[in-house]
Automatic annotation (TrEMBL):
<dbReference type="Pfam" id="PF00703">
    <property type="entry name" value="Glyco_hydro_2"/>
</dbReference>
<feature type="domain" description="Glycoside hydrolase family 2 catalytic">
    <location>
        <begin position="412"/>
        <end position="576"/>
    </location>
</feature>
<dbReference type="InterPro" id="IPR048230">
    <property type="entry name" value="GalA-like"/>
</dbReference>
<dbReference type="Pfam" id="PF02837">
    <property type="entry name" value="Glyco_hydro_2_N"/>
</dbReference>
<dbReference type="InterPro" id="IPR006104">
    <property type="entry name" value="Glyco_hydro_2_N"/>
</dbReference>
<feature type="domain" description="Glycoside hydrolase family 2 immunoglobulin-like beta-sandwich">
    <location>
        <begin position="217"/>
        <end position="324"/>
    </location>
</feature>
<dbReference type="InterPro" id="IPR017853">
    <property type="entry name" value="GH"/>
</dbReference>
<dbReference type="InterPro" id="IPR013783">
    <property type="entry name" value="Ig-like_fold"/>
</dbReference>
<feature type="domain" description="Glycoside hydrolase family 2 catalytic">
    <location>
        <begin position="333"/>
        <end position="411"/>
    </location>
</feature>
<feature type="domain" description="Glycoside hydrolase family 2">
    <location>
        <begin position="698"/>
        <end position="757"/>
    </location>
</feature>
<dbReference type="InterPro" id="IPR051913">
    <property type="entry name" value="GH2_Domain-Containing"/>
</dbReference>
<keyword id="KW-0326">Glycosidase</keyword>
<dbReference type="InterPro" id="IPR032311">
    <property type="entry name" value="DUF4982"/>
</dbReference>
<feature type="signal peptide">
    <location>
        <begin position="1"/>
        <end position="23"/>
    </location>
</feature>
<dbReference type="InterPro" id="IPR036156">
    <property type="entry name" value="Beta-gal/glucu_dom_sf"/>
</dbReference>
<dbReference type="InterPro" id="IPR006102">
    <property type="entry name" value="Ig-like_GH2"/>
</dbReference>
<feature type="domain" description="Glycosyl hydrolases family 2 sugar binding">
    <location>
        <begin position="115"/>
        <end position="209"/>
    </location>
</feature>
């Protein structure tokens, strides 16, 4: 695979090595990852012909059960569709277009692109006869969006949310001992957010086989109370009975520590729920001297729930959880395990460079690790429920989380989404707060907002009373939601008077759910609007917004505020404010879309992190600007910093808490060096050196991620002859790989319109003008005869099936847009007669080896434009 890509300073690409098929085979419950080997094709949002005739039938799948038509039918021929593995985001594969959505990063997909807004996915699975009697279900972690799922032609349901997981029971429709077809129609023509959301099955899919009496979906809930050196654990389990079992079962709850050692156990005999009913059972367990979950030591435990009948385990279900306490205090902010913790948070959307929203699990860990490296301890899932793997990464790496539902409201649509998010996520120790909304301008300042918040807040307490609720509020902090919300979520200092609000509501804790929204292009130090470049110095971005430093100082100085969440940790696609086309990603991130740090990261490392830091910028390649005054800034947590240009001191300055230092330096090529002092002693230095031109390409592998999984991030940079990174390089790089796959590429430049992915372009071309005529003989010709021109009639129309001819000839034509030798043109055909011979442009073609009804057409017999196709078929044996 070769990839051409423009490089500005640094580029990253993501490699996939082979993925093992993962099956969690437990006694009586199997959860099998079925991400591999799907077929995909675009449909159409309103032209049913281009949607493969779906929903055109006299009886639709809503009229008669099992009547899935078009691709929804089991027998549909999808051989010409593209093969792919999940997770998949079709939006990121598309080119950029000025007429596409600003908020979604100008990808030519979804809204306004009817031919790129419907995606069809099909997969065949075998289910063995041994599975008869089990409950078979499909589990989807999330599809963007409005998905309809079919199984063996049966319609299972519609899921509007692009962010919540869901499950369908397919037991009644299974073909045991044979092939079964899963079909998903995804409709991404509507947007749910004002940020890039991707399109397609972008999260994992599982096949589950369970006993009819089993732990229900997201059916466990573990909470703990710590008294002295003991944690009293309440383990709730919801059992569901989809069979006719009547009588008692044993529920065995075992807690294992991180090493797998049993630390507590509880067994109870309970009466099983009735047919199609659920019951919830509660057990109390005790963990002595628990290892608490916190940011630095994210200790986890596992609850293993076993359901036993007649001594036999009929279901087993594992729940990862942590033991910790959380508290918000209106005077002193947030407490974790009784210790005050200032929230040093970032907001983030879910997309990443090169791969859009289809993140392999390894990249979730990569991103959370990058934020932790910056000193961040909290993450707000703005503005929707994340994928479960993100929360696993936060649990395992020690990152506090605000989990946010998508839309405010009090109806089924809103409350059901909130409930499903909470039931799925409430065992994650990382989650410390639920957010039920963000910047709902229509309602936030008035009585409607107040009423909705009251309902959502009380509703969430009925699902999880252990965590508080917040809403991100922006249009003044005076009335409406802010009067009633449990934890006040201030979105931006510039949007109201935070101190005044706090003085009025002294018992209401608060935090800055959004702060910043500053603009920066990584490695750029002069704003040039014509080029859509935003300088990376941390400046007040707009009149009502503040710099990162101003924001942090405000929150750091007020103990009553629990902390703040920067908008954003990473750049994301869409919202390229203050610009528009051709900028396609945001400028707000502390890191760019690849995760490469902008200079602000070092400000945060200095005041959020624990390590000694010294970082000076800009780079020192200003050829042509000799003598001009350049702003040099230092980020550091040293007491003092001294700056040297070519060994000459430019003065030592004292660093104020949560601040930075500045010098004006007349540019001369060479070495700019900063030296940091603590207690008068030199402890650190940082250097910016003028480099030569780019001469070498350096690749470095992110070893951390390679060790953990199959995906790795490779950083590509150019260096000069002395091996120095060239910060101003902008060269085209060609990438190729052996033995793996390049998942996507990115360079973090918001104005880069190069492809993110390089995939084969597949066009499905229909054969039109289908005509037929009878043939006198049953023998098939080896050369194309001259069939009589006046005998052709429309194919399969008005044929007298009682008086069939020995063979039939069909002809049709298809339009070939291009005929280059690198095209692979395959003709797929489904034999209805006994034997057939096919001619393309008069030449006889032979079936392919792998499929006797597929013909790979050689470019030499094809030409651009109309291509003639003739088929003679014998309908019965000679
Ligand atoms: C906020 C909003 C975010 C993002 C940000 C950009 O008002 O909550 O989602 O749009 O503005 O500045």
């Amino acid at each position: 695979m070769k990839t051409n890509f423009l490089l500005r300073t640094i580029l990253c690409f993501l490699i996939l090595f082979s993925i093992p098929v993962f099956a969690q085979k437990e006694s009586a419950r199997e959860v099998i990852l079925i991400d591999k080997d799907w077929r995909f094709s675009f449909g159409h949002s309103y032209d049913t012909k281009k949607d493969f005739g779906h929903a055109e039938g006299y009886f639709s799948y809503l009229t008669k059960t099992g009547f899935g038509d078009g691709p929804a039918a089991s027998g549909f021929d999808d051989r010409a569709w593209r093969k792919l593995d999940l997770p998949h985001d079709w939006a990121v594969e598309q080119p950029f277009s000025e007429s596409a959505s600003f908020s979604h990063g100008f990808k030519a997909a979804g809204k306004n692109f009817p031919e790129k807004s419907i995606g069809w996915y099909r997969k065949k699975i075998t289910i063995s006869n041994d599975d008869l009697g089990k409950i078979i279900s499909l589990k989807f972690d999330g599809i963007f969006r409005n998905s309809k799922v079919f199984f063996n032609g049966f319609y299972l349901g519609t899921q509007e949310s692009g962010y919540n997981g869901f499950e369908y029971d397919v037991t009644a429709y299974v073909n045991y001992g044979g092939e079964n077809t899963i079909v998903v129609r995804v409709d991404a023509s509507m947007e749910e957010g004002w940020f890039y959301e991707g399109a397609g099955i972008y999260r994992h899919v599982y096949l589950q086989k369970a006993n009819p009496l089993h732990v229900a979906l997201n059916g466990t809930y573990v909470t703990s109370e710590i008294v002295n050196d003991n944690a009293s654990i309440t383990a709730e389990v919801k059992l569901e009975n989809k069979g006719h079992f009547k009588g008692n079962v044993e529920i065995n709850q075992t807690i294992l520590d991180a090493l797998g050692k049993q630390v507590a156990v509880n067994t109870e005999n309970v009466l099983a729920p009735e047919f199609y009913k659920t019951n919830t059972y509660t057990a109390k367990l005790n963990v002595k001297n628990p290892l608490l979950w916190d940011i630095d030591n994210p200790n986890l435990y596992q609850l293993v729930t076993e359901i036993k009948s007649d001594g036999k385990v009929i279901d087993q279900y594992k729940t990862s959880f942590g033991i910790r306490t959380i508290k918000f205090d209106p005077e002193n902010g947030f407490f974790l395990n009784g210790k005050q913790v200032k929230l040093k948070g970032t907001n983030n959307h879910q997309d990443h460079a090169g791969i859009g929203t289809a993140l392999p699990d390894e990249i979730q860990y990569y991103r959370i690790a990058k934020l932790k490296e910056m000193g961040s301890n909290a993450y707000r899932c703005s503005h929707h429920p994340p994928t479960p793997e993100l929360l696993d990464a936060c649990d395992k790496l020690g990152m506090l989380v605000i989990d946010e539902t998508r839309l405010m409201g009090i109806n089924e649509y809103h409350l059901n989404d909130l409930q499903r998010m909470m039931e799925r996520d409430r065992n994650h120790p990382s989650i410390f707060c639920w957010s039920v909304g963000n910047e709902e301008w229509q309602i936030e300042g008035g009585i409607t907002g107040e009423r909705i918040t009251n309902v959502m807040q009380d509703f969430s307490k009925s699902i999880d009373p252990t965590r508080p609720v917040t809403v991100g509020i922006s249009s003044g902090f005076k009335s409406g939601i802010s009067n009633v919300v449990e934890i006040m979520g201030y979105n931006y200092l510039g949007n109201g008077d935070i101190d005044a609000h706090r003085n009025q509501f002294k018992n209401q804790p608060g935090m800055g759910t959004e702060e910043g929204s500053t603009f920066a292009t990584r490695g750029i130090y002069f704003t040039e609007d014509a080029k859509h470049y935003q300088s990376a110095y941390d400046k007040k971005p707009r009149s009502t917004f503040y710099s990162i430093e101003e924001g942090w100082k405000f929150y750091a100085e007020r103990p009553y505020l629990a902390g703040m969440f920067i908008w954003t940790g990473f750049d994301y696609r869409g919202e390229p404010t203050p610009y528009g086309w051709p900028s396609v990603t945001s400028y707000f991130g502390m890191m760019d879309v690849c995760g490469f740090p902008k200079d602000n990261v070092f400000y945060l490392k200095s005041w959020w992190g624990k390590e000694p830091i010294l970082h000076i910028f800009p780079h020192w390649n200003w050829s042509g600007m000799e003598g001009a005054a350049i702003d040099v800034w230092a980020y550091s947590n040293c007491d003092e910093v001294e700056l040297f240009l070519n060994k000459k001191s430019l003065g030592k300055k004292k660093m104020e808490q949560n601040s930075h230092l500045e010098w004006k330096v007349n540019y001369a090529a060479g070495t700019l060096e900063a030296v940091g002092y603590k207690n008068g002693k030199k402890v650190l230095s940082d250097i910016q050196k003028t480099t030569g031109k780019p001469e070498n390409i350096k690749l470095s592998l992110d070893k951390e991620n390679v060790l953990k999984g199959n995906v790795s991030v490779v950083t590509v940079e150019t260096t000069d002859k002395n091996g120095l990174h060239v910060p101003t390089a902008n060269d085209e790089i060609t990438l190729s790989i052996k033995g793996g796959k390049i998942l996507g590429v990115g360079n973090g430049d918001p104005t880069s319109l190069e492809s993110d992915q390089f995939i084969d372009d597949i066009a499905l071309v229909a054969i039109n003008n289908f005509k037929e005529q009878k043939a006198e003989s049953a023998s098939l010709p080896q050369q194309l005869p001259n069939y009589p021109e006046n005998e052709w009639s429309d194919a399969f129309k008005d044929r007298d099936y009682k008086k069939q001819a020995p063979s039939y000839i069909y002809k049709g034509e298809f339009d070939l847009k291009s005929n280059s030798a690198s095209n692979l043109v395959s003709l797929f055909y489904k034999k209805i007669g006994a034997e057939a011979v096919i001619f393309v442009n008069g030449t006889k073609v032979e079936p392919s080896k792998e499929d006797s009804q597929k013909y790979i057409l050689n470019a030499s017999i094809l030409k651009e434009g109309k291509t003639r196709f003739t088929l003679q078929q014998r309908h019965c044996k000679k």
